[in-house]
Amino acid sequence: MRRSMKLAAVVLSGSLGIASLAACGAKSTDNSASTGSSGGSSLKVGMAYDIGGRGDQSFNDSAAKGLDDAKTQLGVSVTEAEAKTGEAEADKETRLKTLVSNGFNPVIAVGFVYQPAVEKVAKDNPNVKFAIIDSSSNTQPSNVTSLTFSEQEGSYLAGVAAALKSKAKHVGFIGGVQSELIKKFEAGYKAGVASVDPKIQVETTYLSTPPDFSGFNDPGKGKEAAQGQLDKGADVIYTAAGSSGSGAIEAIAQAGKWAIGVDADQAKQPALSKYKDHILTSMVKNVNVAVLEYIKAAKDGNPLTGIKNFDLKGNGVSLATTGGFIDDIKGKLDDATKAITSGATKVPTAPQS
């Protein structure tokens, strides 16, 4: 269910411009920060979520976990802001500017949709550090750090698992938005399937196309897409669609087939617990690790710069083992992992024709 945009100030010292936060249509609350072993910190971190926000059971929640870990372990102050479906580019810029004007530095933008806004606001605020997750640009200012992932590598392993578990020799892929980023998931998944059996049929469905990003936040569309693939005979379906994936997982579980989750270990998500017996695995994208590492570096006075990529070898991506459903194919998955990390297997980043 779509929530209104919120800007919850988890830690506010005195008056931190609540009026300006409210002017952005935000809802703010005051709480106390947990203090880590360092005895506290003056670092104030702002996070701007992608569509779906905290509670999407996927990408945003993984970023939120990193923010929570930084608050608990490092004693930093944090605040959060959430995007709205169909919002204008100016809304993203305003959200980032509000975080800056209220003293948050660094500011972390979750998702490639923020790239233009981050570049503009960072250029206007050279003394503020910004990070953007899942995007990079040759034109971004030096005070912007890109936190990227080798999604294609984790998705390759998901494809291997799908191919080995499919009884129908027919699997599916559902992408939220047909973007270059999500095509990396598709490319890796299809390559992994083909490495096991190139004759296996792979259904592909995208829920929306830019500039429409609703495909990341429409469980109804996800459910409909999954049902369409199930009707065609797919018995293992991988979804890379943010909160839309919850709808897909529901349809797949109701059909008694296998779903493959994304970003977080979705079998452990409370909102999806009733479907956990049909979640084969999840391609875990450790956004929380990247967020925590970035904040820690900033707190230590040695901020990350440029592009920091988190790959399979560095535990940036992995396959979840919750439920034990892929235990019987562990050997083959380990072999595929070793082939990737050694460089013997080069996973494509664009779907092969």
Q: Could you describe the 3D structure shown?
A:
The chain has helices spanning 18-23, 59-74, 89-101, 115-124, 151-165, 180-196, 219-231, 244-254, 287-299, 330-341, and strands at residues 44-49, 77-82, 107-110, 130-133, 144-149, 170-177, 201-208, 236-240, 258-263, 279-285, 307-310, 317-319. It has 353 residues and is of the alpha/beta class. Helix 2 packs parallel to helix 9, helix 5 (151-165) packs parallel to helix 6 and helix 5 packs antiparallel against helix 10 (330-341). The longest helix is centred in the middle third of the chain and has 17 residues, at 180-196. The chain starts with 17 loop residues before the first helix and ends in a 12-residue tail after the last helix. The model is unreliable at 1-41 (pLDDT under 50).
Number of domains: 2
CATH class of the largest domain: Alpha Beta
Structural class: alpha/beta
Largest β-sheet summary: 6 strands, parallel
Number of helices: 10
Strand order of the largest sheet: 2-1-3-4-5-11
Using the coordinates shown, work out and report the CATH topology of the largest domain. Rossmann fold
Helix content class: 25-40%
**What CATH architecture of the largest domain would you give?**
3-Layer(aba) Sandwich
Unreliable runs, pLDDT <50, ≥5 residues?
1-41
Distance between the termini: 37 Å
Give me the CATH superfamily of the largest domain. Answer: Response regulator
Mean pLDDT: 89
Query: Roughly how many Å is the radius of gyration?
Result: 20 Å
Number of distinct beta strands: 12
